[in-house]
Design a protein that fits this description.
single chain, 503 residues, 3-stranded antiparallel beta sheet, mainly alpha, 43% helix, globular
Length: 503
């Protein structure tokens, strides 16, 4: 520890001790060992002479950060030629400390209003970790309430619902999820308690686990938890669904068939003069409809003043209200969706899930059905049998040709920025290492949402992509590091669905 830093801490510690001694001497002088409430009015007021001098302000303060009751008015001290921001160092330690009451107390004793941007982000991360710990405790208690309820009707549902201002249905769902997490997914619960997962990430894992029998839950956690913290809640939900499909394909195919059989259309009131037209459709049909509406909106004249959303809505109404006496039982998918499926799955050698663009994993049966639809358009996606990554392309031109752009879009699927789920097909293609220092090649290209492209170009975000794993290491302008990894959409080498009869 630098000598100057130690001297400053000693100086402030001595000042604090002198203040304690002065107050102790003062109370002894007034000879009042027991202070009743009414006696306080007879005590003579303290004067400035009774208190030690205020420590001199720091002249080399970096951000003017002041911590509250923990470090008094200390804002920063010099470490050689570089200032050392105490607020930053304290919160960096808090974000890595195990959550618990002691860390909550440290947060509560800190002057949060005086934090700079760097320490403020660290403080938010620390608070998130504490909230995850508290959420895990709440889930544990709720899980015990439902599991220990001796009544056949589970009357604890009403008790919890009334206490938390929830409807009976909401309370029942909350208790079921808590029981699943705390009693049947111990590794996920522990990750939440440690602050390694957010409540939203843990909920994504829990929700996808209900379709599996208890015997498969340990294998499910072992597939989902690695890398879970690096994924958004939406991305993690897709990873969890894919794991469930692989572990119990027969159940998932049965549930897919039942869900498609329950397709329907409903109307619900919305704002003044509007209503929701809601349709529960097969996933491929829904995305085909949305893709067609997108194409129509994009092809509108520049003179058309309607927004994209207005154009989609108007196109849907015009199409549905057009005169037609034909109601096809199977209208076909039209060349507007994309499904990725392994060759072995397509030929029936295995039952690994397929992947529907913009939706996520689908059952092997559903993927095969879509593959044989004569109205669909299919692309051949070739993967390296050793790594499971798409094969490479390359070029020396700045703007990638169509085949290379399509390759990168298919490879990543979504924006490569941390926790962003913006579709790659609607993103910019960015050079990881700026051109011409970095080539226009598969390993040096990544899809970035326009805002995140600008964040990298203008705001100091930096990243480096591993060409083998596809993992990308990001560094923020404040020096914080994040890892992103593309969602697994096709089978990994050697991956096989579960064949255990117990599943």
């Amino acid at each position: 520890m630098p000598l100057k830093f130690m001297l400053r801490l000693i100086e402030h510690s001595l000042a604090f001790l002198l203040a304690i001694v002065a107050l102790f001497d003062y109370f002894l002088a007034v000879n009042a060992p027991d202070f009743e409430a009414e006696q306080w009015t007879f005590l003579p007021p303290l004067t400035e002479a009774d208190l030690p001098a205020e420590p001199r302000p720091e002249s080399d303060s970096w951000y003017g950060v002041t911590l509250g009751s923990e470090l008094g008015s200390v804002s920063s001290v010099a470490d050689g030629d570089h200032p050392l921001d105490l607020a930053r160092s304290v919160f960096e330690s808090i974000t890595t400390a195990a959550p618990g009451l002691a860390e909550i107390a440290r947060l509560g004793s800190t002057d949060l209003d005086a934090l700079d941007a760097v320490a403020g982000v660290a403080a938010v991360v620390a608070i998130e970790r504490q909230q995850a710990w508290l959420a895990a405790l709440k889930q544990r208690v709720l899980g015990q309430l439902i599991s220990r309820d001796p009544t056949e009707e589970h009357w604890c549902v009403e008790e919890v619902g009334a206490a938390l201002a929830l409807s009976t249905g909401q309370a029942r769902t909350r208790l079921a999820h808590a029981e699943q997490l705390s009693l049947r997914l111990p590794a996920t619960w522990q990750a939440l308690s440690d602050g390694a997962l957010t409540p939203g990430q843990a909920e994504a894992i829990v929700k996808a686990s209900f379709v599996l029998p208890d015997a498969l839950l340990p294998a499910y956690e072992s597939r989902v938890l690695p890398g879970a913290a690096d994924q958004s809640s939406i991305g993690l939900a897709r990873t969890a669904q894919r794991a469930a499909y692989c572990l119990d394909p027969a159940t998932m195919q049965d549930k897919t068939a039942r869900s498609i059989a329950e397709r329907h259309v409903r109307v619900a009131p919305a704002g003044p003069g509007t209503a929701w037209l809601m349709a529960l459709l097969p996933a491929a049909d829904a995305h085909a409809v949305m893709s067609r509406l997108d194409c129509t909106a994009q092809s509108a004249s520049k003179a058309d003043s309607r927004s994209r959303d207005q154009l989609r809505a108007d196109t849907l109404v015009a199409a549905l209200l057009a005169d037609s006496d034909i109601l096809p039982a199977n209208p076909g998918l039209r060349p507007s969706i994309q499904v990725t499926v392994g060759l072995d799955t397509l030929t029936g050698l295995d039952n690994l899930p397929g992947w529907l663009e913009s939706y996520g994993p689908i059952s092997a049966d559903y993927a095969r059905e879509l593959a044989h639809d004569p109205t669909g358009t299919w692309r051949r996606l070739i993967t390296d049998p050793r790594t499971g990554q798409l094969l490479d392309y390359g070029t020396t031109k700045y703007r990638p040709p169509a085949h290379l752009a399509e390759h990168v879009i298919e490879r990543d699927g979504e924006c490569a920025f941390p926790y962003c789920t913006h579709r790659a097909r609607r993103s910019d293609l960015d050079h990881v290492q700026p051109f011409p220092n970095g080539p226009t090649a598969e390993h040096n290209l990544q899809p970035l949402h326009r805002r995140h492209h600008n964040a990298k170009t203008r705001n100091g975000w930096k990243n480096d992509r591993d060409p083998v794993t596809g993992h990308t290491e990001w560094t923020s302008p404040h020096g914080r590091r994040y890892t992103t990894r593309p969602t697994q959409r096709w089978p990994l080498p050697g991956e096989q669905p579960n064949t255990d009869d117990s599943g």
